[in-house]
TrEMBL record:
Residues 45-121 form the DUF4168 domain. The keyword Signal applies. Keywords: Coiled coil, Signal. This is DUF4168 domain-containing protein. Residues 21-42 have a biased composition (Low complexity). Residues 21-45 are annotated as: Disordered. Residues 63-97 form a coiled coil. Residues 1-25 form the signal peptide. InterPro entries: DUF4168.
Amino acid sequence: MKRMTALFSAALLSAGLMAASSAMAQEDPATQPAQPQAQAAQNFSDDQLQQFADASQEIAVISQEYTQRLQAADDQAAQQEIRMEANERMVEEVEASGLEVDTFNAIGQAIQQDPELLERVQGMAE
């Protein structure tokens, strides 16, 4: 269970990183309604949830690798470069799983708010 908690923590951390980079490209995200994402949680297919579980496992590995590199970085410029590279790899992993980044992020947000959905996805990851 400890492994699963760490796995999903890493996935949610990466989702936050991807959301931060995409937010810079959008208008003020505070003007975006949050309700559709909550409603979308009801509509995730089993395939999407399985893709999320699979991508999360790979992202946990990427996150661990880049966390070590960040800790060894000499300065802020090097850290920023490492973060950008990590973000690109995580986005590639999500897309390779068959999900769009927005869908991955929406599932990540939904499992934070819905313990039953979290348990369901954890079961798929095992």
